[in-house]
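question for whoever is on the cluster today: can someone run the full assembly for these? two chains, 545 residues total. i dont have access anymore since they changed the login thing
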Amino acid sequence: MKAETARPVAGTREGRKRMGVRLGAWPGMVAWRLGGIAVLLVIWAALATRLSAAQLPRPELVWDALTANFSSSPALEFAGVQGGYFSNVLYTLTTATVAAAVGGLSGFAVGVASARSQLLRDLASPLLVLFAAVPPLVAGPFMLIWFGPGQLAQSTIVAFFCFVVIGVSAQNAASSLSPAFEEFAATLGASRRDRLRHIVIPASIPPLIVSVRLCLCTAWSLQAAAELLGSDRGVGRVVGMAQQLGDTASTLAVILLLGVGGLVIETLITGALTHATRWQSGQRR
Amino acid sequence: MTTPAIELRDLSVVFNGEAGRVQALSNINLTIDPGEFVVLIGPSGQGKSTLLNVIAGLLKPTEGEILAHGEAVSGPSRERAMVFQEDTVFPWMRVGANVDWALKLRGVAPDERKALTARYLEEVGLSHTAGAWPRELSGGMRKRVSLATAFAADPEVLLMDEPFGPLDFVTRSTLHSIVIRLWSEERKTIVFVTHDVDETLLLADRVLVIRHGEIVDDLRLDFARPRTDDLRADPDAIAMRRRLLDQLGVVDPARAALAR
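^ ran it for u. tokens below:
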């Protein structure tokens, strides 16, 4: 059989290289992702026929709860929560994303700096390991005691988690960079600052993409969990209320809205990171 | 009197490793004149790369002094650019951007940089790859990018640490021609580390043989340039080849048999 053009075999380096440079792949990617959601809906609908609405409501009941409470909700208003599901999900996502960015960028700075200085490494490494061993939800009650049940406590929990995850990853990424790159740059006249900006930082970003995705997804869960512990708004507050009323459809509606919003933000951020690291071969989305 | 490009005075390097104290270089005294093409040759692990790293300013000697154009060397500098055996083309910069960055570090104005980048890439036969990512190039092509980048830095001295070691014969020959052409045009001082005798005969004005951290022989090579593979048939070159092989401890089986 004769092929029109050479095609790389999937899974090989050539195949992965091709995946990394293909620019027209977005429509296909979106179609596959929608396909995944469709499969989930079919499984959900099938399971819902065998369970009660309190255990697992049918997709259309959840859709009804979502549309009825999207921009405003009498039940939420009664409990003193402003807005509908959309504004509460937006609050959770933006608060968590900003906190993740602050924690992640601080972690990146500390991780890279500690990879380049023995003194900083000796100082930071035990702290990063110690912090990594503390479950964020165990730290949560302390944050509430220290900062009260507000945005600061929620953001601190999220930022703390992202600081540790990105800090450890950045330290590993910057430490594993071949010294030859920096030595070559030094003999071209690059200062320490030039080398940090043009070599260490760009080389450290690709290994961090997985950690960034992990941080974002966990940030939203942590934010919602922190809101459950104590908050006057957000997904956690809405879910807590719905559970008290035994309204499983509303609980699922707001969780799904959070998932969809999270998917959009995650796609945008990792898309931007993937574009910034397109120099690599064989990168996966 | 011309100021030497490189001057080493009573230079020693000692490493304290897990295996104990290792004397990597011992009491080296050396003067390299501007424009010389010096090859450091010797068996592996005898101090060639250490000496080059010291000259580059990447390694501080235990004792002694290094002068570059009369000034004490205290660290790496653009005046002593180095081409490594490892691939050091920055993969996150496009090929043209690699060369451009060396020009930017040199302080060349942005409007001049574009023309100079094009010129250096043309010198190494890679004009068509300016917009490519390094991963799209072969190993030999990436080595040419390293050369273009190093020459773009316009150093007084170019240090090359077994730069073509892992490459095939044809690619190495092409790179030898490029280095010789650039050296002839720009008259940089080049200090080139290798353990390949044929590469030495093809490139060097002067050969320094290093064994056990000491310079044990300092030879001048006056073969006419351009040198080609025909040099292998020249009786003087054959004699020099034998001498270098002896210095490297390589025993020619045919000669050993005759000696018996």
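summary bc i know u wont read the tokens: The radius of gyration of chain B is 19 Å. Chain B has a mean pLDDT of 92.
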